[in-house]
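Q: Hi! First time asking for a complex rather than a single chain. Here are the components, and I think there are four in total. Is that enough to go on?
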Amino acid sequence: MADMADTTDATGTSPGWLSAGDLEIARAQMPILYVDAVPVRVDDSGEVTAVGLLLRIGPDGTVSRTLVSGRVLYHERVRDALLRHLEKDLGPVALPKVPPSLQPFTIAEYFPTPGVTPFHDPRQHAVSLAYVVPVTGDCRPRQDALDLVWLTPQEAASGSVQSEMPGGQGVLLRQALAHVGCLP
Amino acid sequence: MADMADTTDATGTSPGWLSAGDLEIARAQMPILYVDAVPVRVDDSGEVTAVGLLLRIGPDGTVSRTLVSGRVLYHERVRDALLRHLEKDLGPVALPKVPPSLQPFTIAEYFPTPGVTPFHDPRQHAVSLAYVVPVTGDCRPRQDALDLVWLTPQEAASGSVQSEMPGGQGVLLRQALAHVGCLP
Amino acid sequence: MADMADTTDATGTSPGWLSAGDLEIARAQMPILYVDAVPVRVDDSGEVTAVGLLLRIGPDGTVSRTLVSGRVLYHERVRDALLRHLEKDLGPVALPKVPPSLQPFTIAEYFPTPGVTPFHDPRQHAVSLAYVVPVTGDCRPRQDALDLVWLTPQEAASGSVQSEMPGGQGVLLRQALAHVGCLP
Amino acid sequence: MADMADTTDATGTSPGWLSAGDLEIARAQMPILYVDAVPVRVDDSGEVTAVGLLLRIGPDGTVSRTLVSGRVLYHERVRDALLRHLEKDLGPVALPKVPPSLQPFTIAEYFPTPGVTPFHDPRQHAVSLAYVVPVTGDCRPRQDALDLVWLTPQEAASGSVQSEMPGGQGVLLRQALAHVGCLP
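A: Yes, that's all I need. Here is the structure of the assembled complex.
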């Protein structure tokens, strides 16, 4: 799950949003709703030709590859949360095409305890709605993400890439590839 | 959304669960994760033959028909939340068959403000994962639900039944009927 | 199901395609694979704002509203069949966005015998993979379709429109609207 | 794709079914509609605990592992085709639970030309609707299948098992495992 965005989300300045302190309390007591988006390039027939992964530096300095991910805020539609996180991570001209149906391809349950599911988040119990989102524009990641790299589906499913994806996001990425018929 | 169950859920006696007061605070500040289940009877080929609706008395005394619905608790899997709410509302021998995939047929976004989506919950912003769940056993609703009534898909989609379903659950029921190919 | 296109499809001039006579024989003996596409306009968040329906004159002179529909040919990918029928019915600059996943929102089984399913095609047993397809370009229906009309989801689900959709396509359209969360 | 069943399917004795000769002609001229079923055991919460694979001897004597697979016949519902092939391959008391929705988890396109998609069938262009089907009863494969073996999801996804699955069915199996959240 993307970490750094949360301090941006939870400024505490907007009414109805959580302060950093309140977020900590909530995280210890209830599941937090997230969205995960797998940005893809598609050809004219809709077939996926490339998958976009963010190269991030985590709080402990480790380099990791992540999907676009973040919380759904109070009184925010899932569609708007997807757009907000995609814009935050891919820039304002990525032109993401959020699908017309909100049916996710799967639900990823990130538990604070490892091993309950393939997904793990030491900070919280997060439940994430996962979508594949074609982007057609120019992607310019913001400064907190080092880079955005486009990989072929084959590269994205490789062991070396998978090993750089924390918290089980490599599993989620392969579920996305399976859903779009590109699991090598 | 099912109301009365929440006081049962949030006893405050289990570590990591919300007290009633904390739940109120959280409800004002972040989306709450729910599950909605549409209990169905199916024939040998899997085709839906009947839909189960709960007849409830709401806080204000009005009679309403509802789906099986409730919160996902901290450190609870979505599957276990579904089972818990199905058992709570249908009794211990309903034998619900939770589907092997967690892909919901849709996401229902209940906003405290009417009109943002078809779904409305004055208490909170709830985001619900919606599933169709075949039940094969004997259903014995607990005392807080007046009755469980099995309707044909045609009856369930009728205007009179729809008008008795609060918060947009009539829309969700018709989405479920559409998903299983039984929208009349 | 779209009728008139079939004589165009089955010219018999391409190797591996069926002649009109062979198609008649096959239609009497095995299910024919179709695709159905519901063309939609979406806003920036992906939400459906309008549904495109074709106004057609049937073989018997009756006016009817239909979805984009047609056969999948031998050695043709489902994606390419979708693109071909969308281009045939909406013109070359409609810019349809076929979804990255081939998972259809439903399967429509058109039986020659009425009443087996909600779908009926007197000519054949057709099994259709049904998709919602956003189109972003300019739609210019070919001459064999009278017109393309964009309706709001509410208008599309209305009784008057439903009554003009033959073979159960009104049911399929409402299933599509349910899938995208726009069933009124 | 399951081969040997077709001579059983196509006896030519039932009106509307294809004779073996007609089937050959149709196979050269149009896509043939199939269903693929992944039989699974699930626990009380619906989570997949085991996957059933058939051990078959192919026409050329090679041993292979396959899913339950076969044609949809003229005037046969997809549900009934699933039940027929499951009973044929797993025996009459397997008690398969065909899902209430016909939405498949994916579409597998088997082309006679290798490389168009991950799926290949030298005999024909087959398009298959793929489902995960829990079975709760006793499975007794018929004589033409050597054996039915239950594997854990981890075993089923292993390279050795995958290499024994012809025509791309290993890919389809992993897509099924991804769909049910059991892709290791």
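A: Chain B touches chain D at residues 40, 42, 44-48, 77, 79-80, 82-83, 97-103, 105, 132, 134, 179-181 (CB under 8 Å). Let me know if you'd like any chain examined more closely.
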